[in-house]
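Mods, move this if it's the wrong board.
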Amino acid sequence: MPEEQAREELQAQMALPMAENAVMRVKVLFPLPLFQAFDYLAPAEMGLSPGDWVAAPFGRNVFYGVVWPADAGENEEFDASKLKAVAEKVGAPPLAGEILDFLAWVAAYTMFPLGSVLRLSMRSGEALAPPQGLFGYRASGAAPDRMTAQREAVLEAAGEGALTAKELAEKSGASEGVVRGLAKAGALTEERIDPDPPFAEPNPDAPSRPLSPEQRAAADALIEKISAPSPSPVLLDGVTGSGKTEVYLDAVAHVLRTQPDAQIVILIPEIALTLPFLKRIEERFGAEPAA
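Not the wrong board. Structure tokens:
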């Protein structure tokens, strides 16, 4: 099996005279209902540190896990023949030390399995998997032998950038078969699409709804609070439909205008409000939020 082969290779490295530090022992915590992390072998050249994500065999399967800090005063000697090898280091952002400390505190405070607490902090296991290849179509500039209204609509949509067959079909009102037919005719060229493209830049100066005098006063007070050296919480009181959201978005625009690299988190109180709220933000700043 691959993990057995990897372990044999690591053990062979340990036998080399110059390879005193060729392998290292690391602790790996899996997002499973487990109270502890487990010891594994890893090549020193892998450069693993606490917080790094790895894939490692556990039982009969391979799971994603995070490298966990070693216990203080733990014996550094180990028997490599009894340890399995880490399969690979995953190219995902590592967890900061503060996050690891927080997870350990939550597990201790709630008496909940440490691995289960880790699972709660993850979006999904699939988020750590390498992105799958995604291909789209772009207009090549060549005209097909036969032009129809549907084909013309597809080519017009494809001129705006590479889109998948499904996206082109939805945007043009044609079928995916029409899209593939144009690709076969050479009117569309296939190219790889970035599965995780960068988010669009929000425009804080995009046209917005004018604020009433009361809204302007509330927005100015909010901006003053968040601009202070020590920001403090602010409660904006108002009935439904009084324009509280526009006041908050005006404050967001101020932050984006004065701190272009700032990141702003907006919490939505009800899941039913998610889609209309995202649309509202997109209309206000001319870009979809990272949701």
